[in-house]
Automatic annotation (TrEMBL):
Belongs to the class-I aminoacyl-tRNA synthetase family. Glutamate--tRNA ligase type 1 subfamily. Residues 3-306 form the Glutamyl/glutaminyl-tRNA synthetase class Ib catalytic domain. This is Glutamate--tRNA ligase. Catalyzes the attachment of glutamate to tRNA(Glu) in a two-step reaction: glutamate is first activated by ATP to form Glu-AMP and then transferred to the acceptor end of tRNA(Glu). Residues 321-465 form the Aminoacyl-tRNA synthetase class I anticodon-binding domain. Keywords: Aminoacyl-tRNA synthetase, ATP-binding, Cytoplasm, Ligase, Nucleotide-binding, Protein biosynthesis. InterPro entries: aa-tRNA-synth_I_cd-bd, aa-tRNA-synth_I_codon-bd_sub2, aa-tRNA-synth_I_CS, aa_tRNA-synth_I_cd-bd_sf, Glu-tRNA-ligase_bac/mito, Glu/Gln-tRNA-synth, Glu/Gln-tRNA-synth_Ib_cat-dom, GluQ/Sye. The gene is gltX. A motif ('HIGH' region) lies at residues 9-19. ATP binds at residue 241. CDD domains: GluRS_core. NCBIfam families: gltX_bact.
Amino acid sequence: MTVVTRFAPSPTGFLHIGGARTALYNWLYAKHTGGKFLLRIEDTDRERSTPEAVEAIFAGLDWLGLNADEEPVMQFARRDRHAEVAHSLVAAGKAYFCYSSPAELTEMREKARAEGRPMKYDGRWRDRDASEAPEGIKPVVRLKSPLEGDSIITDQVQGEVRVANDQLDDYIILRADGTPTYMLSVVVDDYDMGITHVIRGDDHLTNAFRQKALYDAMGWNVPTFAHIPLIHGPDGAKLSKRHGALGIEAYRDEMGFLPEAINNYLLRLGWGHGDDEVISTDQAIEWFDITDVGKGASRFDFAKLTNLNGIYIRQADNARLADLIEPAIAANLDVRNLDAVQKETLIKGMSGLKERAKILTDLAQSATFYVTKGVLSFNDKAQSLIDEAPAGLFAALANELAGLDTWHEEAIETVVKQIAESKELKLGKVAQPLRAVLTGSNSSPGIFEVMQVLGKPETLDRIKQFEAA
């Protein structure tokens, strides 16, 4: 059997972090087993579904590298097929038209509430003939759920789960206007798409029993279920926006995370491989099995995600990082894009810069000085270092450095040390003011590395602005 998994988001909002983990687990399990990963957009809620949300889901999955093996299925486009199945169940005596009025349903709810029991349709139209139907009521179609015994699901994460059938009701599969309900659409689509494994959040576990009843009524094989625990916030409460339940585009655009770091972190939220923390995609595909996912909810921790992102930034290719932060730097400089010289300088400086960065937004901020043209802006500490620099220091630096024939770190360091010795200063008393005039900050990669990356002409131009100091 070829394993076929699916990710089936509703485009009523953007791809959030919990949905991204569900997609990742489905994608990894398909790759691990040599199967297929499919995508279905469950857009039957026409009032809340938007094209913008659909595009955001596609973009988010593409950014994470979780690409489907076939074209996406749009659920709303299949509504006629869903209705066809509902009517076939009526014809087979496994579903029925229900003519209960809104007033009757309200009465049922109020009675159940008064008696302290859950609301459950009482099946009053289960065996009645349509000839008894009252005028003016458009019927819904309800599934005849089993009345006796237990329904059992052997879940790959939750284990064996059992529900008494008398707890299930004859739920609606086709509304009065002829449109299918979520329960019907999901089952028909999963069957038609050949889904063998349904991997989703454990908030859908109760749905699984209702859906099993529909599979059984149609005589279809029930897929293997795996209901994964939800992600909680650091305080153990349900994940919310204040915890990090944001659209994936916020992690990409606003917070500066790399997709491989997001995937690695989400992978470890509920699944593990010994003490391994940094896990490549290839390793994840080799090691991942849905049966190894734990039953307990995981807690989202921004600090851990940020630290992991820093590891991936340090491992990333310098040119790729330069490409990723270029738009933010261009915005900092109020230009449309960087020129070729600026881009080359940025790439050269990336080795030192990325050792200090944990997110791309910080990397962009710390890199801006390399490509700034004209006078830098100085933070307060940098300005203090410049103001307190020994008299004549910058003139001496400009003069001695101008005579260097070979512009590399070792040669630069030798000259700067000689100037410090000649003025009877500790190296830091020279290097720190020098850092300030070259970077606008009191913190940067090694100052001699900075000077090599900037190049001789730019370094001298920046120092000479302070010769008179």
